[in-house]
Each structure stands twice: as structure tokens, then as C-alpha cells.
């Protein structure tokens, strides 16, 4: 008996490597947390995935941080493909869901490492000097989150498994 559910449509399941590739490729996803009063709280975020960790940035106050302090367990979903095929009444989709625990990074060293992982993803052609200047300028109010992946699943439309 596993803590995480086994996928019903196993023929549509992606390998760990294919699922990781979706996380590397994606530019945004939805972080799901245990919100206030038992309501799930799902919030779209930009991110970077590297070496089993998802990094996010956020404000230093808000519902997201309150939720993480209440419960560190979370999931993060990335949609890699969503192509409607009207003639077949179907969608060619591919997505990944990561499960794990989120930490609010407290140490300056960890925070700096996290933002240095995240920033090149969104402006890869920037010069290191300019990137450092932007990080330095925006750094004071910055809060960084690290999501350690414990489990992940990837799934795609049955039509894509035949391709």
C-alpha cells in the first residue's frame, strides 16, 4: 500500500524522466495548498525545477505563506500540452503533478541560491551583471519557497502514446 495513488490508466502514464522533462520545460503551474477553513488553495505561479526541487518567489505576507505554515504538504501541477481535437471530441493533453513539501527559505544563502536558479529561466539572454543588479534591487521584499518533490506523476492522452 503506497501513500500516493496508482494511476488508473497506466498506459497513459509517463516515466519519471518524461515527467521531469515537463517540469523543466514548463513556465508556470498551479501550487495547491491546504488553505484556510479546510478549503483547498490553488495558486498559479512561475517556477523553476532543478535537481528535485521547485523554486517559487512570492511576497513576504499572504494566504500562500499562511497556508504553508499551517501545512507544508503540497502538490504542483504543470500542463504541458492542451490541444483540442473537436472532430474527435477529445483533447491531446500532457501534464505532470508533483507531490512534496514546501519550505519558506529563511537563510540568505538559500534565498540567494533559489533566486539565482529562477531568474535565468525568465531572461536567459540577460548578462550576469544586469541579472545581479535586478536581483539586488528586488531582493529586500523577496520571499523564496522551495518545494522538495517526493513523488510525481505524468499523464498524456492515449492518442499521444501511439505517436
Write a structural description.
With 163 residues, the protein is of the alpha+beta class. The protein has 5 helices and 7 strands. The chain has helices at residues 16-25, 63-70, 108-122, 128-138, 158-162, and strands at 28-34, 40-46, 48-50, 53-58, 73-85, 90-104, 143-156. It has a 7-stranded antiparallel sheet with strand order 2-1-5-6-7-4-3. A hairpin with a 5-residue loop joins strand 1 and strand 2 (40-46). The protein is globular. 23% of the residues are buried.
The tally of beta strands, per DSSP, is: 7
Order of helices and strands: HEEEEHEEHHEH
Q: Overall 3D geometry?
A: globular
Mean pLDDT: 90
- Order of strands in the sheet with the most strands? 2-1-5-6-7-4-3
Main structural class: alpha+beta
Number of helices: 5
Q: What share of the residues lie within helices? A: 25-40%
Gap between N and C termini:
33 Å
The rounded Rg comes to: 17 Å
Please give the largest β-sheet. Answer: 7 strands, antiparallel
- How much strand content do the residues show? 35-45%
What are the segments in which pLDDT stays under 50 over at least 5 consecutive residues? none
Structural descriptors:
single chain, 163 residues, alpha+beta, 7-stranded antiparallel sheet, 5 helices, 30% helix, globular
Put the structure in a nutshell.
The chain is α+β, with helices and mostly antiparallel strands and 163 residues long. The chain contains five helices and seven strands, in the order αββββαββααβα. It is globular.
Amino acid at each position: 500500500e503506497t501513500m500516493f495513488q496508482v494511476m488508473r490508466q497506466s498506459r497513459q502514464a509517463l516515466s519519471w524522466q518524461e515527467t521531469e522533462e515537463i517540469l523543466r520545460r514548463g513556465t508556470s503551474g498551479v501550487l495547491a495548498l491546504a488553505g484556510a477553513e479546510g478549503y483547498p488553495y490553488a495558486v498559479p505561479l512561475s517556477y523553476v525545477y532543478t535537481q528535485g526541487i521547485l523554486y517559487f518567489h512570492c511576497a513576504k505576507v499572504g494566504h500562500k505563506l499562511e497556508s504553508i505554515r499551517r501545512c507544508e504538504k503540497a502538490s504542483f501541477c504543470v500542463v504541458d500540452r492542451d490541444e483540442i481535437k473537436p472532430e474527435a471530441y477529445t483533447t491531446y493533453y500532457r501534464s505532470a503533478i508533483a507531490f512534496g513539501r514546501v519550505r519558506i527559505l529563511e537563510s540568505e544563502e538559500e534565498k540567494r541560491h533559489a533566486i539565482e536558479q529562477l531568474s535565468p529561466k525568465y531572461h536567459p539572454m540577460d548578462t550576469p551583471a544586469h541579472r545581479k543588479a535586478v536581483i539586488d534591487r528586488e531582493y529586500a521584499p523577496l520571499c523564496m519557497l522551495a518545494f522538495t518533490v517526493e513523488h510525481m506523476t505524468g499523464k498524456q492522452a492515449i492518442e499521444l502514446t501511439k505517436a
